[in-house]
C-alpha cells in the first residue's frame, strides 16, 4: 500500500517530466499500479486509516507522484464531498472544454507540495474526457465542479505541470475572467 514516504515532493525531477503512455492491454503491473493509486485516495479519506497510516487526504493522485512516469491517475470522491465518483484513468485526455473557467476559492493543494501556495488556479469549468479504465475499456465522460478541477490537476501531473504554475505571480488572487469560484465545504476540508 502507498504511504506518504512513497510520495515524491516538489523539486524531484520526475514531477517535471512528461509521463509515458501506458501500453494496452494493461500489464498486470500497470493494473496493480492503478489499484494502488485508487486505494491511496480512498484510504486517505477514511478518518481511521488516514490516522493509522498518517496519510494526507486527497481526492486525486497520479503515478508520477510515486516516481512512476506513466500516464495513469486515480480520483475518488465519496458521498460526503457531494460527489460520487471513483475512477482510474489510463492515457487520459480532454476532448473538449467549456469557455467558462472555475477555480477553488480556497486554492489548490497537492500531496507532493508540503507548503500552502495561495492563489487562484484557473481551470476549465466543464470538460469532456476520454481514457481507458483498468480493464482496458475506453471511457468518455463529462465532468464539472471539483471532479473537473481534480481531473485537470492530475492530468497536469502527467505533463510535468504543478498547480502553482497557473497562479499569477504578480497577483495570486486576481479575478479570473469568465470564472466561477468553487467552495469546498468546511466539513470536506476540515
Ligand atoms: C479530509 C477528508 C483549504 C485548503 C481549502 C479532507 C476527506 C486547501 C481548499 C479531504 C484547499 C477529504 C483539497 C485539493 C484543496 C489546501 C487534491 C480536503 C481532500 C480538501 C481534498 C486535487 C486540488 C486536490 C479548497 C493547501 C491533494 N484538494 N483541497 N485542493 N479533502 N482537498 N486538490 N485546496 N491547501 N489535493 O489544500 O486531492 S485538485 Cl476529500
Ligand atoms: Ni498534485
TrEMBL record:
<dbReference type="GO" id="GO:0046872">
    <property type="term" value="F:metal ion binding"/>
</dbReference>
<protein>
    <recommendedName>
        <fullName>Peptide deformylase</fullName>
        <ecNumber>3.5.1.88</ecNumber>
    </recommendedName>
</protein>
<comment type="function">
    <text>Removes the formyl group from the N-terminal Met of newly synthesized proteins. Requires at least a dipeptide for an efficient rate of reaction. N-terminal L-methionine is a prerequisite for activity but the enzyme has broad specificity at other positions.</text>
</comment>
<dbReference type="Pfam" id="PF01327">
    <property type="entry name" value="Pep_deformylase"/>
</dbReference>
<feature type="binding site">
    <location>
        <position position="153"/>
    </location>
    <ligand>
        <name>Fe cation</name>
    </ligand>
</feature>
<keyword id="KW-0648">Protein biosynthesis</keyword>
<dbReference type="GO" id="GO:0006412">
    <property type="term" value="P:translation"/>
</dbReference>
<feature type="active site">
    <location>
        <position position="154"/>
    </location>
</feature>
<feature type="binding site">
    <location>
        <position position="110"/>
    </location>
    <ligand>
        <name>Fe cation</name>
    </ligand>
</feature>
<keyword id="KW-0378">Hydrolase</keyword>
<keyword id="KW-0479">Metal-binding</keyword>
<comment type="similarity">
    <text>Belongs to the polypeptide deformylase family.</text>
</comment>
<dbReference type="InterPro" id="IPR036821">
    <property type="entry name" value="Peptide_deformylase_sf"/>
</dbReference>
<dbReference type="InterPro" id="IPR023635">
    <property type="entry name" value="Peptide_deformylase"/>
</dbReference>
<keyword id="KW-0408">Iron</keyword>
<feature type="binding site">
    <location>
        <position position="157"/>
    </location>
    <ligand>
        <name>Fe cation</name>
    </ligand>
</feature>
<dbReference type="GO" id="GO:0042586">
    <property type="term" value="F:peptide deformylase activity"/>
</dbReference>
Amino acid at each position: 500500500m502507498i504511504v506518504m514516504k512513497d510520495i515524491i515532493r516538489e523539486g524531484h525531477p520526475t514531477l517535471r517530466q512528461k509521463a509515458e503512455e501506458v501500453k494496452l492491454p494493461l500489464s498486470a503491473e500497470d493494473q496493480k499500479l492503478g489499484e494502488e493509486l485508487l486505494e491511496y485516495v480512498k484510504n486517505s479519506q477514511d478518518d481511521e486509516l488516514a490516522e493509522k497510516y498518517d496519510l494526507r487526504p486527497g481526492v486525486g493522485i497520479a503515478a508520477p507522484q510515486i516516481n512512476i512516469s506513466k500516464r495513469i491517475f486515480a480520483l475518488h470522491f465519496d458521498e460526503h464531498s457531494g460527489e460520487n465518483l471513483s475512477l482510474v484513468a489510463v492515457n487520459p485526455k480532454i476532448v473538449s472544454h467549456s469557455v467558462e473557467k472555475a477555480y477553488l476559492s480556497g486554492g489548490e493543494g497537492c500531496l507532493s507540495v508540503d507548503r500552502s501556495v495561495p492563489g487562484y488556479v484557473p481551470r476549465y469549468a466543464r470538460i469532456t474526457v476520454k481514457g481507458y479504465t483498468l480493464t482496458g475499456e475506453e471511457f468518455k465522460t463529462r465532468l464539472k465542479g471539483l471532479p473537473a478541477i481534480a481531473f485537470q490537476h492530475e492530468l497536469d501531473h502527467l505533463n510535468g505541470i504543478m498547480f502553482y504554475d497557473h497562479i499569477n505571480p504578480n497577483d495570486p488572487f486576481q479575478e479570473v475572467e469568465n470564472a466561477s469560484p468553487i467552495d469546498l465545504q468546511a466539513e470536506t476540508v476540515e
